[in-house]
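Before relying on records like the one below, remember that each one covers exactly one chain. Contacts with other chains, cofactors or solvent are not represented anywhere in the record.
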Amino acid sequence: MVAHQQCIARERRALQLERFQLVKRLQASGRTARAIMRETGIGWASVRKWIRLSDLPMRNRMAPRPGMPEFYREYLQRRWTEGCQSARVLMAEIQTLGYIGCYGGLAKLVASWRQPASATCDLLSDTAAVIHSDDSMDRDVPIQPVPVRHISPQIAAALLSQPRALLSERQAETVDVLKQQCPGFTTMRRLVLSFRAILRHGKVATLRRWMTRAHASDIPALQRFVRKLRQDLRAVEGAVTER
């Protein structure tokens, strides 16, 4: 499990590094911070920070303390694999070892072990990150099945909005696995990617057709997003028609 966590951290770092390098390439080409944000969909705070840096800094992570379930991760994972999968029983056990945190924190930690595939799909269904351009190169590629539990929800959600042209070979394989094993991923990915293309090159009529398709997708996050668009539709249409 430690090796798995390290793999997740490497994947996350690689994805962030690619986004950082994209920002730096656009900056070198003369784009302003606002232009970079519009073209990539990367958040304003990250763009503004990254254009001032020459290298992506390493993330400093606070060391777990006895009040954090993470402090007891190794013990909890061992007990979990031994068959003890009751959060309340585990809570009582680590309290004898000095745990002073709350039950909710522990329950959140072990929830991802109980139903990892479901957790990934739930997160994707709740993610309406509308970031990148059309996924015209995206296609289904037959690959050997890989258990979804080896893909963290954070990485899955980030890859949801990455065009295939910006994916590494490993990330492309991950996307194909998710498209095979997580219901709704393909639909949501296509809609998320096409929305950004509409903002960059589309028309109001195209936007309205997209909203109809997104609302009919039965994906709650996209349906909520469409409702938000309709609340200020004139401004959204302005974003499509104006530079």
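Residues 116-120, 125-149 have pLDDT under 50 and may be disordered.
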